[in-house]
Amino acid sequence: MANLSPLHRGIKRVRRFRSVARLGSGVAQWVTAAGWLFLITFGLDWVGKMDTVERVVLLSIEAIALAWLFKKYMLPVIAVRESLIGIAAKIEAHQDVQSDLVAALQFNDANIDQFGSEQLRARVVNDTAQISPGIDYLFGFSRPTLWKNLGKSLATVAIIIAVAISVPDYFNIFLRRIALGEESYPTKTVVLSLETIEANAVVGRPITFVVRVDDNKVVPDDGILKIVGKNDAESELKLVRIGTTNEYSVTLPRVIDDFAVTAIVGDDMGDTKKYDVLQVPRIELEMKADIPAYAVESFNVKSAGGRIQSVLAGSNVHPVLRSTNNKLRAATIQLGDQVFALKNEGDDWRMPIENHPLIGVESTTKYQISVTDTNGISPDRPITGILQVRPDQNPRIAAATVINLVLSGAAPRIKFRAIDDFGIDTVTADITITRVGMDNSDDTITRMINESKSHAKQIDNTVPIELADYGLKIGDTVLVTLRVTDYRGQQEGVSIPSDPIEFTVTSRANFLAAMRDIDSETDEKLDQIIKAQLGVGDRQ
Fold first, then answer.
1. Which residues, in sequence order, are bridge partners of residue 439?
2. In this model, does residue 83 exceed pLDDT 90?
3. Which terminal Cβ of the chain has fewer Cβ within 10 Å, N or C?
């Protein structure tokens, strides 16, 4: 049979052309779609000034879109596999070839079992071989679709290049931003910094912001401070320019919860800053009082409310404070004009010295405590208070007798009552004798008349004063003064005398005459006299 090589070469040429055309058209369409997606991303990022999270989300969406575009435009091109017979049929249709190209290819294929007239098959093959060199195989296969798609893709690339040339700064920054860089687009105004005057944002306190812009760029008259608080609640404060400087300021009157702020000045938006709101240290103060041992059971440390506390004079008071929320860095206590730095012991802060004004405290003392936590935060006002010192009252004693006339050898009886707030140590009698005809009295004689081992707070007793040993004569006088001494432990007690009782030595006749005036109610009257001397009511 005739040689059909020209026909085979022509059909393969058509197949290559169609394959290249399909691939080129698919690539052009994908490039066009990807290019416009790139430009849209540039526009959204420029206008929206997206943060990192927003860019990650957008790039993820675009990656999905590019994968879908690849599937739509590229996979169908790659998957197509055209046969020579199929292309030959398309050539027949486009060229209106009278000879049957498809039949010639099949009749000339030695691998196919042939049927029918051999002469007819040979005639078809020979006729096809004669016309195959003159066929324009590419005629009818349209190129405009390929050129159109290539034109769109080239135009898209040209637009991208034009944008890059017209705004190179923005374009270069965009390329770094889609690589998740932190660069910002150039603006007419450039926010340089956002700072606070205060070191920390503290709950309940104001905080002042200072925004600084580049004074080589546009410096607007004002700006906005955007605040995002708890539950994404948003508010705005007006930034006021400080004179003609490149700084702006605004004060948030009261801080409550954690928040984030962003400064917007002109066409620029600064970086968002987050602030954790710190708590003011809450202080617990305890004035531990060591009451003198003799008064421990009777004296109760009392608080008059707030920072006023009552202690007994002579007590050792030890201030102990602690913070219930923040860790403290320093604490001091001022007592009068003296300031003492407290020492940290675990969670407590204590006086670091053994001898200070509150050891053996004797007078009411005002104190003031100042603390600073590890964040440098102090309470709005120092902690002040009063340590009221209650003195150990002096003991009191009152004495009375039935009759002031006595016989020389008598033992007149004196009734007395002694009282003290915490206990009585001793009761003694000072006896002074003045003899008739002498200007000076004899030396005073002291006699123990009561020694309380139990240190009772009150002693009621009647004691005789023995006069027989003093050789008294009629006209001599005996002055008796009872003296009570209170109990103060290791300290020396305080002695207080009663009003003196004067006895006059008289004759028996005068004494009996005076005794006739004493009635049965004398003892009760003595009690009334004693109570009157001690004051209304008994102090326990």
1. none
2. no
3. C
